[in-house]
């Protein structure tokens, strides 16, 4: 299998009727160690031959097992490692047996005479006899992609491409770059889909996630030491639209949902426990004292409540107890850290729930396309920002 999102992969997966079925079957057929071997090799730098030669079904199973594990914590270092390792595995497979039809990317072969001779002579250096044939082959604009697809996949300037008649013409190198970007996007989409199913996944995936996490922590040890763990100050500019609307204060019909249900869960998980693998996690599992909640999270919630019309906590002073309840401390005004676990620490509702219960809060922007939960929106943006910062360094 050269692309786990390509045509052949889709045909194989269709035999299992649903992705849910496929994920349920994997634990019966695949040893966790095989899935882990897909990432473990990064340390030594050499992909095990047997991983490159797995039959199609085992290749898909071991790859999707990792994605199932990522459902417990998308956009962390684990996803970064899975992306990096598997991108390299499939890159190797593609270079060993290139097959355009089986790549998950909307690119087709360009017609023979679609590029005017004059342009082709310049761009493909056709008349430079001294240039080795392999180099000329690399310069050939053999493929084309519709501009709208190019714009959604490439972060480069359009001037980097030869454009004609609504298409960008590509060399094989450019095609591979775009395929990589499509691969990353497809991987994120799949993980976001599995994120919704994570409560139903067999324990195999949580075990796999924990093992994967150990390998990722070892691999990114230096970076983790530099940033000092995972919980970071909140980055308001990266919040999803629904949370920004809740923060700005809303009307009376919406305020309890916006403040107590959405904002309280979102801010607390985003600040204290962004990558929780379990939904039964308690605040005391993530922090050592109450200061983050009392000095950072609660003031933001109260200010947002005060911005509501009419102000939420003036009207309903007991709603503060409900905030503590939603944070898992029980219905109280005077919680201690030890009380956490007295009630459920509510997880941010999925986008589908927000749209059903408070449609006025959901004003999706372009980044909402990739996610199913406001917290994953935020984690994804944090991930993209950290990649940008790394690029600058
Ligand atoms: S799609 Fe989800 S994250 Fe985006 S605004 Fe709607 S509820 Fe919020």
UniProtKB/TrEMBL annotation:
Keywords: 4Fe-4S, DNA replication, Iron, Iron-sulfur, Metal-binding, Primosome. Coiled coil: none annotated. Transmembrane segments: none annotated. Binds 1 [4Fe-4S] cluster. HAMAP family: DNA_primase_lrg_arc. Regulatory subunit of DNA primase, an RNA polymerase that catalyzes the synthesis of short RNA molecules used as primers for DNA polymerase during DNA replication. Stabilizes and modulates the activity of the small subunit, increasing the rate of DNA synthesis, and conferring RNA synthesis capability. The DNA polymerase activity may enable DNA primase to also catalyze primer extension after primer synthesis. May also play a role in DNA repair. Heterodimer of a small subunit (PriS) and a large subunit (PriL). This is DNA primase large subunit PriL.
